[in-house]
Amino acid sequence: MSYVQEVIAAVKKRDPGQPEFHQTVEEVLTSLEPVIERHPEYAATRLLDRLVEPERQVMFRVPWEDDQGNVHVNRGFRVQFNSAIGPYKGGLRFHPSVNLGIIKFLGFEQTFKNSLTGLPIGGGKGGSDFDPKGKSDREVMRFCQSFMLGLAQHIGPDIDVPAGDIGVGGREIGFLYGQYKRIKNATEAGVLTGKGIPYGGSLGRTEATGYGLIYFLKEMLSDHGLDLAGQTAVISGSGNVAIYACEKAQQYGAKVVAMSDSDGYIHDQKGIDLKLIKQLKEVERKRIKEYKNFHPEAEYNENYRGIWNIKCDLALPCATQNEINEQEAGTLIEGGVIAVAEGANMPSTNEAVRLFLEHKVLFGPAKAANAGGVATSALEMCQNSMRLAWSFEEVDQKLHGIMVNIYRMAKEAAREYGMDGNYVAGANISGFQKVAASMLAQGIY
C-alpha cells in the first residue's frame, strides 16, 4: 500500500461517520500521488498524516431564547485546520446539516483554496446546526450573540478570521461582530470579514465569490478558444454566490435560464430576471417559487436536483456539497455541457468529477473556481490592517487578477505532472506545494 493510500485508510478508520471528510481527503490525496513520489521527504516526515489532522477542533454549546421565551440549544463548531501560511481563515455555516465531519471537510478544502489565492491565510471553518430560515431578526441576534460567547476566545485578527457561508450573511456577521467587540472591549475590525461597509467591510466582498467564479470560467473557456457570450447557463442555488455569478455571467453575454433553492428550481427560457431574484431572496427572504407569480410562463419544479436535467452549455453548481452525482453528471454530458465550474464547496461527487474529466468537459473545481470570496476577504483584512478603504474598482481588479492567476497555476501544475487539462489535480497540487513547503520549513508540529 502506498503512503497516500495508507493515510486515506487511516483517516477512514480514525474518523468513522464523516463521509464528506473522507471524500475530500481521498480526492485531494489521490491527485497528489505523483508529487509524493517526486518528494520522498514528505513521506519521511509523515507530512500527510499531519496535513489531514486539524491543528485544533472546538465544539461548544449555544443556548438561545426564541421570541416566545422558549430555550433552544445548538452546537457550535470551529475547526482550525492549518496555519502554516497564515492565520486560520474560513467561513461560518449555519444550517441544520452542519456536523463535525462537514466542518472538517470544509476546513481541509479551505487550506488549499486559501493557498491558491497567493495571500498569507491558513485554513479553517466553523458553524452551527442552527437554522436561520424562518427566524426573526431578534432570534438570529440572540443566537449569534450566544454563538460568539463560545467562539470569541479562539479567534482574533492574527489567529483566526471567520467570515460568512451558507446561512451567514451581512446580518449575522454584524451581530457576531457587535458581540465580539463587547466581549473584547476593543475594536478589532480584522477579526471577521464580510462586514458592512460602514464598519470596516470591503466593497466588492458581496459579489466576490460569484464574480470570481465567472472570471475563472471565462479564463478557462478563453484558453480553449471559447467565449461566454451566447452560452446557455444553469446555476443552482439563489444565495449570494449564485446571484452574483448570474449577474456577471449576464454581463458577459451568457443566458442564465435556471436557478434554485432547497424547495425547487425555476426554469425561465427567456433568461432569468435577476432583479426579481434579488428582491425575493436578498430583500424579502422568500422562496424561489414566488418567481412564477411574476413570470407565469416560467416553469417551477419542486425537485431541486432536477435542475441538472436542463440542457445547457455551462453548469454552475452554487448550492451545496454533492448536489451533482454520477447520474446527473451523465445527464449533463448527454445534454452537451461544455464546461462545469463549481461555485459551492465540493458540489460534485468524486464519481461525477471523474465522469466529467473522462468526457473532456472543462471542469473548474471549487477550491480554485470559488476562491474569489476568501481572496476578497483577505483583501478586506489588508484594508482593516492599514485602516484604508479601496474602491470597488480597485478590489474587483485585484480579484480578477487573483482568479486569472489561480487558473494559470492550476493549469501549469497539471501540465508539470503529466495531467494537462486536469484542473482538479492542478489546483490540488498547486495549493498543496505552498502548504507543504511551509510545513517542512517550520518543523514537526
Task: Annotate the secondary structure layout.
Elements (H helix, E strand, L loop, with lengths): L2 H12 L4 H13 L1 H6 L1 H5 L2 H5 L4 E10 L5 E12 L5 E7 L5 H17 L5 E7 L8 H15 L8 E5 L5 H15 L20 H19 L8 E5 L3 H12 L3 E7 L2 E4 L6 H10 L7 H4 L4 E3 L12 E4 L8 H9 L4 E3 L8 H9 L3 E3 L1 H4 L2 H15 L5 H25 L6 H19 L4
Parallel strand pairs: 3-4, 3-5, 6-7, 6-10, 10-11, 11-12
Antiparallel strand pairs: 1-2, 2-4, 7-8, 8-9
Characteristic key phrases:
445 residues; alpha/beta; Rossmann fold; seven-stranded mixed beta sheet; 12 strands; 48% helix
Structure description:
With 445 residues, this protein is of the alpha/beta class. It folds into three domains: 52 residues, no CATH class; 135 residues, Rossmann fold; 164 residues, NAD(P)-binding Rossmann-like Domain (Rossmann fold), CATH 3.40.50. 48% of the residues lie in helices and 16% in strands. β10, α13 and β11 form a beta-alpha-beta unit. The mean pLDDT is 97.
- Overall shape: it is globular
What's the arrangement of strands in the largest beta sheet?
9-8-7-6-10-11-12
Structural class: alpha/beta
Question: Which CATH top level class of the largest domain fits?
Answer: Alpha Beta
CATH homologous superfamily caption of the largest domain: NAD(P)-binding Rossmann-like Domain
Following the backbone from N to C, one meets helices and strands in this order, namely: HHHHHEEEHEHEHHEHEEHHEEHEHEHHHH
The radius of gyration is 21 Å
What's the architecture of the largest domain in CATH terms? 3-Layer(aba) Sandwich
**Helix amount, in percent?**
40-55%
Number of domains: 3
The total strand number stands at 12
Number of helices: 18
Mean pLDDT: 97
Q: How far from one another are the termini?
A: 26 Å
Largest sheet properties:
7 strands, mixed
The low-pLDDT segments are: none
CATH topology of the largest domain: Rossmann fold
The share of residues in extended strands comes to 15-25%
